[in-house]
Amino acid sequence: MSVTPQHSARVDELVRRLDAAMDDRDDESRCRNVKRVLTEMLSTGQPFLEARYLAPTPDCYARRLLHRDPAGRYTAVVMVWDHRQGTPLHDHAGMWCVECVYQGKIRVTSYSVHGGDPETGVVQFEKEKAVHAGVGEAGALIPPFEYHVLENALDTPAVTIHVYGGEMTYCHTFTPVDGGWKRGYRELSYSA
Q1: In angstroms, rounded to a whole number, what is the distance separating the alpha carbons of residues 160 and 162?
Q2: Which one, 39, 48, 145, 151, has the greatest CB density within 10 A?
Q3: Can you say whether residue 91 is alpha, beta or left, with left for phi > 0 and alpha for psi between -120 and 50 degrees?
């Protein structure tokens, strides 16, 4: 990764601290540790990401790899949300995640699943809560609590850093249909 010397030190510090956060063996402790690291580093509001990570894309939110742990314990991904961009209702394919706002503000709407039909792939969800998160505010998903929608809450781009318990290469999305929500499959890739 090529970053300016000023920014490189902060990204290196983030990676060092995330590596240390992985020392605990259980997902709940790792999430708590990662959330603390992200909150402490991002709540200062001091920018440390290169401009190439911060550019929005026109058709959907941008997803850019910041760091892939060589041991496979986690990945750190930068996401950029332009005005009115967001995700469909989705899961995290059974993987834990911590998300923290780097710039702007996002709206996170959480859902819990309440039954479904494996034959039709239609499930029922109940909206749990919606929160607006600003710079330095973080949330965690630990399966089976892993269903949510993320959206930019402002007219200007928002940027979030997501740390996953591995590399998230796909997820399931859910589209409203008669009788519930239809489950679909989406492969994930990184934006240029």
Answers
A1: 6
A2: 48
A3: beta
Q: How far apart are CA 28 and CA 185, in angstroms?
A: 26
d(CA 191, CA 23): 30
Residue with tokens 């998160």: 133
Cα 8 to Cα 102: distance, rounded to the nearest angstrom: 16
pLDDT tens column, 108-159: 999 999 888 877 889 999 999 999 999 999 999 999 999 999 999 999 999 9
Q: Return d(Cα 177, Cα 188) in angstroms, integer.
A: 23
| Residue 92 in tokens | 């995290």
Contact 152, 78 (CB under 8 A): no
Of 95, 42, 49, which is closest to residue 73 (Cα–Cα)? 95
